[in-house]
Amino acid sequence: MAKKRDERSIAIGRVLDDLRRVFQVVHGYSKRAERVGGLTGPQLWAMKVLAEGSPVRVSDLAQRMYLHPSTVVGILDRLESRGLATRTRSTEDRRVVTVSLTEEGRLLVSKTPQVAQGLLLTGLKDLPTEELHTVRTGLSLLVGILGARDLPPRLLFSYEVNAPAPEPRPHAIRRTAKDR
Amino acid sequence: MAKKRDERSIAIGRVLDDLRRVFQVVHGYSKRAERVGGLTGPQLWAMKVLAEGSPVRVSDLAQRMYLHPSTVVGILDRLESRGLATRTRSTEDRRVVTVSLTEEGRLLVSKTPQVAQGLLLTGLKDLPTEELHTVRTGLSLLVGILGARDLPPRLLFSYEVNAPAPEPRPHAIRRTAKDR
DNA sequence: TCTATATATTTGCGATACAAAATGTTTGTA
DNA sequence: TACAAACATTTTGTATCGCAAATATATAGA
Prior knowledge:
Chain A has 180 residues and is mostly helical. The first copy, chain A, has 2 domains: 1-33 and 113-145; 38-108, Winged helix-like DNA-binding domain superfamily/Winged helix DNA-binding domain (Arc Repressor Mutant, subunit A). In chain A, 56% of the residues lie in helices and 7% in strands. Chain A has 7 helices and 3 strands. Chain A has a 3-stranded antiparallel beta sheet. The longest helix of chain A has 31 residues, at 2-32. At the A-B interface, helix 1, helix 4, strand 2, helix 6 and helix 7 of A face helix 1, helix 2, helix 4, strand 2 and helix 6 of B.
């Protein structure tokens, strides 16, 4: 009786562990590999979005990246200064600015390895059909659990770091330890 | 003949899409929810590691977080200034500093929701045993593909953003568009 | 003792990330 | 037309994060 319960608990634990492993690997690769071209994660991410369909308005880009427009502006500054993207002010509505990849940018993004994705792709290709199906079904169930069925599949990954500083700021004591 | 090939391609695409969805959801929750206590991702992450087994030496903490020691110092500064962690210099070897959670810190970390994880947990619990097994097997296969079998399952998530600046710095052109 | 190594911190720099304010544009309305 | 409101983007200011290199202190070894 209790046995079945234990087995399930163990299985659940394994699922979570494996999920963490997947996260870790993918993140690790994104860390080391995506910067082949000297691009940071968000920069490459923006370029991938642009590669999907430029030109894009700045606000649209921000929305697709789930980032604040002002954040995107900074990223675009860096991409533009490297000649990977260009901004053009619309002539119809001079408020909007559309962004596109340059030829160089398009080239760079196309040959960026995406190690994790590549690994997955070839790995999945080599998988026996039945196991592939298992993977597919399993992940689909996970997506269902997370209620993410309707989400547009975002590019492999997002990044974020910041906090909104809910408190009025604790005044940032600098350097505390340092006994004696 | 070609049919089978197509089906496989589609299945592979679905797997990648679903994986992206999982990433997105988990990340989204981590973004919005983990900051319940006003903690950033890395801060909460450090606290989780500390909760697993303090006291920990600073260098060990850095290693477990896959971060540079100097980065951890900053995070600890902020945690300490909020009274969530404490640093103590060892008496045996006065070079080392050990870190622990304060009572308040322990409390906070224990009641931090971990929305995504909670969702997964309850969702998986409600899953029929057979489907749970499918999820488990599928993820296990993925882990195998990624060669992550031997990784210690890291806490649900890591964060990182930065690049090492491979070039001697492109001199940062500020503000370029702005035609006219 | 003198030197090398180890541990943590400081310093310097770049990049995210957000909010609020500023700038320039367009649209609606009196 | 004149003016106000709404919009899109950028600027400004602040807070992290993240790393490398330099520092300070402590330990270990020759």
